[in-house]
Write the structure tokens for this entry.
Amino acid sequence: MTSVEEKRIDEQWYSVMPKGWGTFRGDKRMHGGERKMLYDILDQGEDITALVGGTYRAEQDTNRLHKHSGVAVATSKRVIFLDKGILGSKEVSEMPYRSIEGITHSTGMLSGGVQITGLGRAGWRIEDIMPKDSAKLFADSVRHYVEDLHAEMAQQTNRKAESVLSAAEEIEKFASLLERGILTQEEFDTKKRQLLGL
């Protein structure tokens, strides 16, 4: 990745970074390892829209002790879960928006949580989010992209249905012309194949 793209990622990271990360542990580079992991993960032009830090695990993981401490990153394409371990280990998981059915957030006295529900058994739970207000901002960002994607998919389905209906109406018109002897069977079959995209 070019240094220009790395700079763009850094600027986006710091612009959506939850308040308190700079002073929460007295280090302005809190989760700096996870931020740098994005240099090799994000696609060209993929934008960072929200961040939360905490502990997370996949819902289908039956080992309740198998949690990661890291960052969940909402981008313009997906949610990415990053854990930069102390001894150089790296854990990366992702969930594309098309796989997300819903997202909820919660806030307690000190921290927040986010639950992402995916298709089938897939899902993620992010806990111990601090500051707690960042849980809502993160959930709102993900919800925005998921709702937009679902609306776009519904529009595509409607367009396909309208196209099929329109093709059926056109075939009926050509069938009428065939019955009246205006079209030959070969001309009708050609038109029908064109309308059905065969």
Notes: The radius of gyration is 25 Å.
